Amino acid sequence: MPNTSKATRYVAIETRRLILRTPTLSDAPAYAALFSNPLNYEHEPHKPSNPSVEHYERVLSSFIEGTHKRKSAVLTICLKDGEEIIGTGGFNSIFTRKPGNVRIGDAGFMIDSAHWRKGYAKEAVAAMLDWAFIPSSLARRGQPAIDVVVFESLAANDRIKGLLSGCFGFQATLRDGGFGAEQVWEITRADWLKRSTMMGLPDGDIPFPASLRPDPQAAGT
Ligand SMILES: CC(C)(COP(=O)(O)OP(=O)(O)OC[C@H]1O[C@@H](n2cnc3c(N)ncnc32)[C@H](O)[C@@H]1OP(=O)(O)O)[C@@H](O)C(=O)NCCC(=O)NCCS
C-alpha cells in the first residue's frame, strides 16, 4: 500500500512479495554488496570504482534528499519476507520538459543476480509504473504524477530488453550514444494503461479511473 510521510516524504510501495521504499543510511552495506557484484552492472558504461559502505552512505543521503525535494525517487527493493534487500530501482531524476510541461521520470532497475528470473523485476516495475502514472488529480503526497517514464541502456543489455520489450511489450528505439548503441524506452501513461490492461495486471493501491483504461479488447490489438 503506498504510504508517504509528510515529514520525510518517505515512500513505501507494497507488492505481493516486495516492498519498494525510500532508502535509509542503514541500507549502505547492502548497496555496497549490490555494486560489488560485476554481473549486476555488466552493461553499465560507468563501473563503480569504490563500492564501499562509506561511499554508499553518501550516495544514499543524496537519494533521500532527492526524494525529499521531489527531484528523484530512488527506491530500495526488499523482500517482504525477511526484509532482505535484493535490489534498487525507481527514478534517478524527475523533471518537467517544456514545451507542454511534460513530467518525465528517468528510470532504472537492478535486481541482484542471485534473485534473477524469479519475477521480482516484473513485480517491482509494474508497481512503480502504477505509482508513478497516477494522474495529479489523484496523486497522494509524494506521488510524482509522471507523464512519460524513460528507460535508457546500452543496446547490448538484453536483460532489460527482455524485461521491457519481451515481458511488458514496450517498444524501444535505438540511437548512437557516447558509449555505443543505446536502446531507449519512452513509456507514456496511455502505453502503461494499455499494456497493464492487456496483461490483466491488478491496479496498485489507487485504482486508475475507468475512463482512463482502454477497452480490454481494444488494448489487446
Ligand atoms: C533486468 C533485470 C532488472 C531483470 O530482473 P529479473 O528480476 O531477473 O526479471 P524478472 O524475473 O522479473 O523477469 C520477468 C520477465 O522479463 C524477461 N526477462 C528478464 N530477464 C531476462 C533475460 N535475461 N533475458 C530475456 N528475458 C528476460 C522474461 O520475459 C521474464 O519472464 P520469465 O522469467 O518468465 O521468462 C535484471 O537482470 C538486472 O538487474 N540486471 C542488471 C541491471 C540492469 O541491467 N538494469 C537495467 C538498467 S535500466
Automatic annotation (TrEMBL):
Among SUPFAM superfamilies, the record links this protein to: Acyl-CoA N-acyltransferases (Nat)
- Which CDD domains has this protein been placed in? NAT_SF
| Entry keywords, A to Z | Acyltransferase, Transferase
Annotated Pfam families: Acetyltransf_3 (PF13302)
One CC-aspect GO term: cytoplasm
| GO terms assigned for molecular function | protein-N-terminal-alanine acetyltransferase activity
Record-annotated N-acetyltransferase domain positions: 18-190
**Which family is this protein grouped under?**
Belongs to the acetyltransferase family. RimJ subfamily.
UniProt name for this protein: Acyl-CoA N-acyltransferase
Give the species this sequence originates from. Gloeophyllum trabeum (strain ATCC 11539 / FP-39264 / Madison 617) (Brown rot fungus)
